Amino acid sequence: MTAMPPGWNARLALGFAERAGRTRLVERHQRGPLAVQRPFHPEGAPCHCYLLHPPGGLVGGDRLEIAVSVDSGAHALLTTPGATKLYRSNGAEAHQTQHLRVAADGILEWLPQENILFAGTHARLATQVDLDPGARFIGWEVQALGRPANGERLTTGTADLSLAIQRAGRPLLLDRLRIDAGTGLDGPAGLRGFAVTGTLVATGIDREDLAAVRGLAATDSDILWGATLLDDLLVARCLAPFAEPARRLFAAIWGILRPRLLSLPACPPRIWGT
C-alpha cells in the first residue's frame, strides 16, 4: 500500500516594533504556504496586517504555526482575508497553532475570520496568548462546526479547540472544546444545537466597560450571547446559527471597546468589506 504523502508543514513568525512613531513589521520568517501582505497604516501609527494561507484550507496531515510578537510601544492589528477551511480527513489530523506574545505597553488586536470545520475533519486548533504586565489585547475566535448554510454539522470527525491566555505566567483563561462525532453539539450543557460558537476577550476592562458591552442589543434574535469579567479580562461568548451574526456581534463589541481601551475609533480592515 502506498503511504499517503505528508501534509504542508508551514510556519510564519512576525515581530512588530515601534519605529519613528509608527509600528513596523521588523521581523518576518516564513516557511511553506503562510505569508503576510504588505503591512499598511490606514489610521496612522497602528500597523494592519493580513495573514494569508494560499492553499485556502487545511487537510489531514497539515501543520500550520503562526507566531506573533509585539514589542513595547507597538500596536498591531491582524486579520485574515477569508475563512479558514478544515476539510474532511482520511484519518490524519490537521494542526493549526497560534502563539501570540505582547510586551508591556504593547497592543495586539487579533481579529481573524472564522474557521469552518467540515464534517469528517480531524482538527486540532490551539491559540496561546502570553501577556506581559501592562500589555493590552483584544481578540476573538469564531468556529463553525460544519457548514450550516448546507445543513451540514460536525457529526463525523473530531475537533479539539483550545484558547489559553496568561499574564506574566499566570493563567487568565483556559478554554477548551472537544467534539467527537457530534458529542457536545446538542443539549443544555453543550452547544444547544447551534452550529457556530465564538469567544471574544479583551484586557484592561472595568465594570463600566462591561456594562457598555452588555448594553449592546443583539442584532439577531436567534443568537445567544453573554459577557462576564474575570479580574480585568472580558470574556464574551456567543452561539449562533451561522458565522455572520457572530462576526457582526463581535465587531459591534470591538467597536464599543476600542475607543474605551485604546482611545481609537473602530477602523474595520478594508478586507472585511470585499
From TrEMBL:
GO terms assigned for molecular function: nickel cation binding
InterPro entries: UreD (IPR002669)
UniProt keyword Metal-binding, yes or no: no
The UniProt record lists the keyword Chaperone: yes
Entry keywords, A to Z: Chaperone, Cytoplasm, Nickel insertion
Coiled-coil residue windows: none
Subcellular location: Cytoplasm
A GO cellular component annotation in the UniProt record: cytoplasm
Family in the record: Belongs to the UreD family.
Quaternary structure, from the entry: UreD, UreF and UreG form a complex that acts as a GTP-hydrolysis-dependent molecular chaperone, activating the urease apoprotein by helping to assemble the nickel containing metallocenter of UreC. The UreE protein probably delivers the nickel.
Protein name: Urease accessory protein UreD
